[in-house]
Amino acid sequence: MNALVTDLYELTMAYAYWKNGMAGLDAAFSVNFRENPFRGGFTIACGLAPAIEFLESLRFDAEALAYLSSLKGNDGGPLFADGFLAYLGDLTFTCDVDAIPEGTVVFPHEPLLRVTGPILQAQIVESAILNLLNFQSLIATKAARVVLAARGDRVVEFGLRRAHGFDGALSASRAAFIGGCSATSHVLAGQVFDMPVAGTLAHSFIMAFDDERAAFEAYADAMPNNAILLVDTYNTIDGVHRAIEVGRKLRERGHTLAGIRIDSGDLAYLSIEARRLLDVAGFEDTSITASNDLDESLIESLKEQGARVDVWGVGTRLVTAWDQPALGGVYKLNAIRGRGGEWEPRIKLSEQFAKTSNPGLLRARRYAVDGEYIGDAIYDETQPPRNGDVTIIDPIDPIRRKTLPRSAEQEELLIPILRQGRRLQDLPRPAAIRDRVQSQLARFHPSIKRFMNAHRYPAGLEENLHHRKTELIRKIRGDETR
Amino acid sequence: MNALVTDLYELTMAYAYWKNGMAGLDAAFSVNFRENPFRGGFTIACGLAPAIEFLESLRFDAEALAYLSSLKGNDGGPLFADGFLAYLGDLTFTCDVDAIPEGTVVFPHEPLLRVTGPILQAQIVESAILNLLNFQSLIATKAARVVLAARGDRVVEFGLRRAHGFDGALSASRAAFIGGCSATSHVLAGQVFDMPVAGTLAHSFIMAFDDERAAFEAYADAMPNNAILLVDTYNTIDGVHRAIEVGRKLRERGHTLAGIRIDSGDLAYLSIEARRLLDVAGFEDTSITASNDLDESLIESLKEQGARVDVWGVGTRLVTAWDQPALGGVYKLNAIRGRGGEWEPRIKLSEQFAKTSNPGLLRARRYAVDGEYIGDAIYDETQPPRNGDVTIIDPIDPIRRKTLPRSAEQEELLIPILRQGRRLQDLPRPAAIRDRVQSQLARFHPSIKRFMNAHRYPAGLEENLHHRKTELIRKIRGDETR
After folding, report:
1. Which of A56, A313, A326, A361 has the fewest Cβ atoms surrounding its Cβ within 10 A?
2. Which residue of chain A comes nearest to B221, CA vs CA?
3. What is d(CA B444, CA B405) in angstroms, rounded to the nearest whole number?
4. Contact state of A168 with B350 under an 8 Å Cβ cutoff
């Protein structure tokens, strides 16, 4: 993959490390975000497989090097020395990567992915890793919310035309499927990720015929067992009646009208009425698809109004994550290996305390009682939690504490993925990751899954890490006031 | 380009056209949107060149056909007949395309791009065309707004880490540059689109050193004329003082401190104070870059507070179009060629009148007086405006009318791009399109460019088209009530 998928400052910093003889200095970075998106109570980790593929194939090819050598500084001279470009030309990614598996439910401040190794390499991959994890986690989370709202109905992702570029569409389709969608309308995504594809019919097809009946008949003739007829081009209820007529003709020929779709108007009223008309005519198996700027709130409201929808077609508001189109994941330096070989924790202060980073070789452990998850401890692997009760402290609001009992089941959230750049195991396919999302969500209390005032799941700093962080802050602040 | 970048229903409709012997029926489709994004008064057309590249290279290759032949219907049989797949395998794009050039200021309801030709071909390219035009027009518009807010200061796009996938980033960088940004941080975008790249320094670099001074010195040593020092890792004002010390050492060696960057805190106060300190120390030429979740509103507010910023680094909120992450552009069938060869207008009704489409072979003409644009007329090319005063009528609110005087200068907005699939001319490069945006914006009254309560520029249906549309609606409604 093209190593130029990076911000220029990653390369100028790399250049400065190289010039100062620090390229090989061992560093530990990790990715975390500060708030669950959509004012929700959880986030779905997604995007790891593409990130790992990027890292494994990281190369500066001849074309990339030629481009970098063409860049000029303010003095008109080359921005980068030739020796540095030669160094980049020989570079492959040899860091260690540990990460929380895709499809895991995760929370603010947890290290989603950790890179440990030569600082130059670990730095230049920041932009690409953040791009992939931020976007796919955002969309997988949105999809999981929409699927929760649909309470068992199928959700199909229809977003290609409003997604952010071809790849914005492709990766949104992947993440939406992982988050729980049943299928995508995007044919290439179906091919690339081995996911089911689905589709209905557009208004233009209806309009290309002299009338709706002729259009329905032509479409049903072409695919007598697969026709989903769009009934709202002119008048929705009339359209349902016409679809039923076409369905009767199909039935006489031994076929089944697959479904109808409603794309405008009062979806609650129209779906209830359409269901009634279909059932009265004996079309109990004909499905109703609804679409039109749907999201989790609208679906929740329509369900409460008794809408009779079998398939929810969700596009724009899913693939753009309409109400919050970015997850603010960051990639922070957590530790540097000193001359003696020991790891020195590093911290970034901020006037906004929520933006202060957590120091150390970060890991996270999840605790469960009777199968239900009760809390996560973020800790420094050089000082792991002792074999006793563990107290966790909220990183933003230290008054919020919780004790996780020693008797709880424990699982490590980060697993080793790359060692010196080599993959330790195959990564799961989207269908398996999708299953993981559902089995994960089932283990959390419903209160974190509601849309209004979601419960804050306890994910905090293990006590030792909290104290170490507090000391570091005090030390830096003390240095300042001297 | 891969023809599978499409929604499945485009292919099932194509299949039905093919099976019904209608694949070659001539149709006219066009793209339009219904509202300017961001509650603004204008939109920048963008994405045409990638859309045309997609159309020119449209092919169903062997792998695509193999995938399509693997798709099953509800009865377990193949979804598509082999004869249809063979037809797709031979297909190239032979339609005519007319479009408004990239970088043009456009308005709701105007036909941005028109496809005329065999309905099967014109239909299957819908999803890809909408994806490209919707997203790039959205981002170019956002960038134009940010650049207007910056009132002549440079704006650099920093969005890679929060954009929607690698290509979401790449195409956002292109559109942001076209909209008026001076440079991007995304190195690959710089290479691919021949745009300037720019960058500063991250907090991690500062934290990798024992203290801020050591980090500044190492960075400045590596690139003595190009160093932009990030001053807010620990304490911003202290950071400015340290940057000045490093700047003095650079000056002793004949170099210039290029700039500083502030990424947190009160950007108005800190930039004013930093400017004062830099000026007092004789660093009048050292620039100040500001960043931190900026958008046009925040920049406007900071400018009003007297912020002394030379370069605005804008990321997340630009490349995700944070406050409206999709432009709702649609692709509608406007006309079908009848058996006698004449074009028959088609219309889609909707319970939401704003969603009712406009019929005919659509074009648009822009009128200017003394160089300033005063109104646009959308018309049917089979009934062009007469050589007299032209009345335009708002498509949503027919009480809003305006007369464009016969004495006004006139220009056609849509130009021919493809004829039977062949390109008539080279399309401009991003730098030329970027110039067009600025020269276009200069010709509109400031009232359409303000952020609050922007003026609604008159872009309406030419009288004949309005009457034809009204008749068509009456006819369909009449049929319904019979």
Report:
1. A56
2. A16
3. 17
4. no
Q: Which two tokens stand for residue A205?
A: 């097809």
pLDDT at residue B339, rounded to an integer: 86
For residue A443, how many C-alpha atoms fall within 13 Å in the half-sphere facing its CB? 19
Residue A215 covered by a domain = yes
Q: Name the nearest CA neighbour of A427 among A181, A178, A174, A102.
A: A102
Give a yes or no: residue B10 inside a domain.
no
Tell me what pLDDT residue A314 has: 98
Determine the residue among B1, B8, B211, B255 to mutate to test chain A binding: the one whose Cβ has the most chain A Cβ atoms within 10 Å.
B8
**pLDDT given for residue A19 in this prediction:** 97
Instruction: Tell me how far apart the alpha carbons of residues B160 and B173 are, in angstroms, rounded to a whole number.
Output: 8
pLDDT-derived band at B349, boundaries 50, 70, 90: confident
What does each C-alpha distance from B213 to A418, A474, B203, B274 come to in angstroms? 35, 20, 13, 17
Which residue matches tokens 């485009």?
B10
pLDDT score recorded for residue A4: 97
Domain region containing B263: 199-306
Q: For B93-101, what is the mean pLDDT?
A: 98
Supply the ipTM of this predicted assembly.
0.96
In a domain, A292, yes or no: yes
Whether A333 has its CB under 8 Å from any CB of chain B: the answer is yes
Q: Which of B397-406's residues contact partners 24+ apart within 8 Å by CB, and which partners?
A: B398/B466, B400/B458, B400/B460, B401/B460, B402/B375, B402/B458, B402/B460, B404/B367, B404/B374, B404/B375, B404/B377, B405/B367, B405/B369
8 Å CB contact of A204 and B333:
yes
The minimum CA-CA distance between A408 and chain B, rounded to whole Å, is 37
Q: Do A197 and B172 touch (CB under 8 A)?
A: no
B73 and A225: CB-CB below 8 Å? yes
CATH of residue A229's domain is 3.20.20.70
| Phi, psi of A318, deg, nearest 5 | -85, -55
**B132: chain A residues, CB-CB within 8 Å:** 165-166
The span from the CA of A383 to the CA of B168, in Å, is: 41
**pTM, two decimal places:** 0.97
